[in-house]
Amino acid sequence: MFHMEFMKKICSKVKEMEQPEMSKVMAGKLSLADKLLGSGESRVMFRWRSSLWKLLWQELLAYTASFMMISLVYRYILTTDQQMEAEKLIRWCRHQSTGLPITFLLGFYVSLVVKRWWEQYCKLPWPDTIAIFLKGLVVGPPGEKRVMARVVRRTIIRYCILAYILCIRQLSVRLKKRFPTMHELIKTGIVRADEMVRIGDEESVNVFASNWWMPLKWAIEILQKAQRDGLVTNAPGYSHMLGRISEYRAGLSEVATYVHLPVPLVYTQVVHLAVYVYFAVSLIGEQWVIWR
User: Fold this and answer.
1) Collapsing DSSP states into helix, strand and coil, what is residue 251?
2) What is the Cα–Cα distance from 165 to 185, expressed in whole angstroms?
3) Residue pair 124/255 in contact by the 8 Å Cβ criterion
4) Are the C-beta atoms of residues 152 and 244 closer than 8 Å to each other?
5) pLDDT digit string, tens, across residues 115-157
6) Which of 30, 48, 50 is nearest to 38 (CA)?
7) Cβ(153)–Cβ(203) under 8 Å?
8) By CB distance 3.0 to 4.6 Å, which of 4, 134, 137, 172 could disulfide with 153?
9) What is the C-alpha separation between 276 and 273, in angstroms, rounded?
10) C-alpha distances in Å from residue 91, one per residue of 45, 76, 109
11) For residues 123 and 249, what is the distance between their CA atoms, to the nearest angstrom?
């Protein structure tokens, strides 16, 4: 007991000595950008790629220029009588802008878009589950059939990954850049040249015109042959494996459907119209009135 207590005290002392040293090392590794922009969540506000600033900088610049132009005309070009009439318009626009349900429309629209995005992510299938079931189902007796079982497992997983790439490639810009043509898939070994001929060029942007489902059909055929060859001896497991592949295909189909059936256009137009009208009224309603 005394030995254990003594070792605990030594460990605590070592941690106390190492903690200041680690903080100094981390402080020395901070770059100039980290010191200027901060680190962690505070730095997220200064990101440009896929950010709000990159999306809205043109509209923000146009709104600021229009606001300043109206302010200059109101203050330096209009006469006193015209300024007083303009002030009535400013007060009227300021009063009317408070009645626009902009908060309700934007809140509901943003929650709908985020919900669709999260549901789309949750519906993405994972080949890991199929790989785990294959490992326990397609085994084979020791010897040559054990090697055949390994080839069957690898081929089925390769077909699942190929179907995943061919489907999501129509929807993801990053994946499209990674595999712009079928020849890039051949270079990685995911698909063979004869299989590419059977699938096609896959140059259409319409996912419903794609043959991304064909590798899953081949995977089921290979699983059927493995059962005939005696590599799969468990009938309930075989049936469950077919169900897993069907669920994998259903997940990819649902993800593709989410992309090609977006938020109804009418609701999107209503939200955009409400936002533009609100900021158009704010150009006048938010002007600073000359104090008299």
Assistant:
1) helix
2) 9
3) yes
4) no
5) 988 988 899 999 999 999 999 898 878 888 889 999 999 999 9
6) 30
7) no
8) 134
9) 5
10) 34, 19, 29
11) 11
Region 151-178 average pLDDT: 90
Alpha-carbon separation of residue 93 from 43, 100, 145, 278 (angstroms): 37, 11, 81, 10
Instruction: Report the pLDDT value the prediction gives residue 34, as an integer from 0 to 100.
Output: 56
Q: At which residue do the structure tokens 């069907």 appear?
A: 246
Contact 251, 123 (CB under 8 A): yes
Tokens of 111: 């929650």
Token digits of residue 6:
């003594």
Task: Please state, in angstroms and rounded to a whole number, the distance separating the CA atoms of residues 125 and 212.
Answer: 14
Per-residue three-class SS string for 139-199: CCCCCHHHHHHHHHHHHHHHHHHHHHHHHHCCCCHHHHHHCCCHHHHHHHCCCCHHHHHHH
Task: For residue 86, give Cα distances in angstroms to 2, 63, 100, 219, 276.
Answer: 87, 19, 22, 73, 21
> Quick one: tokens of 187?
């270079």
At 78, give phi and psi (nearest 5°).
Answer: -70, 150
Nearest to 127 by CA among 197, 188, 195, 215: 215
pLDDT band at 20; cut points 50, 70, 90: very low
Instruction: Tell me how far CA of residue 29 lies from CA of 18, 26, 35, 44, in angstroms.
Output: 17, 5, 10, 19
Position 193 pLDDT exceeds 70: yes
Region 203-219: mean pLDDT is 85
281 is written with which tokens? 């009224």
The residue with greater pLDDT, 73 or 6, is 73
